[in-house]
Amino acid sequence: MHDILLVALDLDGTLFDNNSRISPRNLATIKKISNMGVHVVISTGRPFGGLPFEQLHGTGIEYAITANGSAIYEIASEKCLFEESMDEDTLFPILDFLLKKDIHMDAFIGGKGYSPIQCIQAGQKLTVPASIKHYITNTRTRVDNLPQFIHDNQLKVQKMTLNFFQDEKGVLKDRDSVREFLESNASITCVCGGYNNLEFTRAGVSKGTALHRLAALLDIEPSATMAIGDSENDLAILEAAGIGVAMDNAAPVVRKHADYITASNTADGVAAAIEHFIPAVLKS
């Protein structure tokens, strides 16, 4: 096994606790390995604008894989180093189907989140942690007609995120039919990013492909990388990394495919995994 030169960290359910905060131990450990010359990278389903910039300040984290691998950013300059988005021919037939459903949806464009005005009520019904609900409902630019907005401004969509609420029987409204529709479309990749949501990108795009692209940019062999995550959208990066680590709170399928299980996101699991695989951090 190579020495680890790059560590990729998911945010929600991984680096974040259940209140979307990064623990002091996790922050201190990240800073230590950054000072040792290890590249620490955020790997998230969120858009670039959804990163916790204030919490990350001073940690040494320079890069972020965002929108499930659709875009890679240099954090300090806010420069997009790579983007692989969906064009109108791919996206608009899907949007035509989704806009007839009673769900909350976000389009990630240029590192920012946009959502149809018609989704506001659905957003208020979501049964997710309060910090996630606040993030979803308060950080989006609301637009009246999403396809028209995209077309008129010649925009490219990095990723779409769909969130569902429970009906009177406790069943997530429209989720099954939406997933069946998305998974039948060969032009996109559909995964769950946590809290029973659905997320889709251009076919072939994943956190794993982005990890290899960023590692090549930094002249790092994939075998010298480690990735830590908890949800279905982390599977590709855990499999692409030299070492794939699942949180103790990870989805069963993620735990099954991981090389190692660390502690939960509320018990400093990120720091524990780093200390296990980079024991020199304990001496620094």
List keywords for this structure.
284 residues; 14 strands; single chain; 21% strand; alpha/beta; six-stranded mixed sheet
Please describe the topology of this protein.
Elements lengths: L5 E4 L1 H5 L8 H12 L3 E5 L9 H4 L6 E4 L4 E4 L4 E5 L4 H11 L5 E6 L2 E5 L3 H5 L5 H9 L2 E3 L2 H7 L6 E5 L11 H9 L4 E4 L6 E5 L4 H11 L7 E5 L5 H6 L2 E4 L5 H6 L2 E2 L7 H9 L7
Parallel strand pairs: 1-2, 1-12, 2-3, 7-8, 12-13, 13-14
Antiparallel strand pairs: 3-4, 4-5, 6-7, 6-9, 9-11, 10-11
Question: What pattern of helices and strands is seen along the backbone?
Answer: EHHEHEEEHEEHHEHEHEEHEHEHEH
Strand content: 15-25%
Largest sheet: 8 strands, mixed
The Cα radius of gyration reads 18 Å
Structural class: alpha/beta
Distance from N terminus to C terminus (CA atoms, Å) equals 22 Å
- Sheet with most strands: strand arrangement: 5-4-3-2-1-12-13-14
Low-confidence stretches: none
Number of strands: 14
| Tally of DSSP helical segments | 12
Helical residues, percent: 25-40%
Shape: globular
Mean pLDDT: 96
Give a description of the structure:
The chain is of the alpha/beta class. The chain is 33% helix and 21% strand. It is built from 12 helices and 14 strands. The strands form 2 sheets. Strands 5-4-3-2-1-12-13-14 form an 8-stranded mixed β-sheet, with helices on both faces. The protein has a 6-stranded mixed β-sheet with strand order 8-7-6-9-11-10. A hairpin with a 4-residue loop joins strand 4 and strand 5. The mean pLDDT is 96.
